[in-house]
Hints:
The chain is an alpha+beta fold.
Amino acid sequence: xxxxxxxxxxxxxxxxxxxxxxxxxxxxxxxxxxxxxxxxxxxxxxxxxxxxxxxxxxxxxxxxxxxxxxxxxxxxxxxxxxxxxxxxxxxxxxxxxxxxxxxxxxxxxxxxxxxxxxxxxxxxxxxxxxxxxxxxxxxxxxxxxxxxxxxxxxxx
Length: 156
C-alpha cells in the first residue's frame, strides 16, 4: 500500500490504453481495486497490474493488460470522473463535493475545501489510496474543482 498523497513505489512505467476507449490509463494499486469492487466483481478478479481510466464517456474504471476490466457498475463508489458535473463527490475521505463547494462560494465568495483537505493530509487522516477510486490523492482534484466552480460563478 502507498503512503497517502505520495507516489506509488515501484509503480509501472508507461501508460497503457484503456480497453474501452483507448485513453491512457494511470496505474492503481491492487489494494484500491480490491477495496472498491462490489462482491460479484471481486469474485472475478485475478491478480494483475491495473490501471484507472478517467475518461468521462467510458464506463471502464479499471483495466489490466490481460483483458480484465471493471466498469462503473462494478465499483462501490460513484467515480467522480465518470459522473456529470454538478454535485459530484471529489474527496472520498472527507466529503468535499461540488454542491457544497458551489454553495460555499455563493455564500462566502470563496471555498475553504482545499485548506480543509490539506489540514487532514497534514494530520495523516486521509486514506486516498483505498477510498479514492483513482487510488491517489484528491487534493489536486479538489483544487481544480474549486477553480472550475469559481470560474462558473464569475461567468454567471
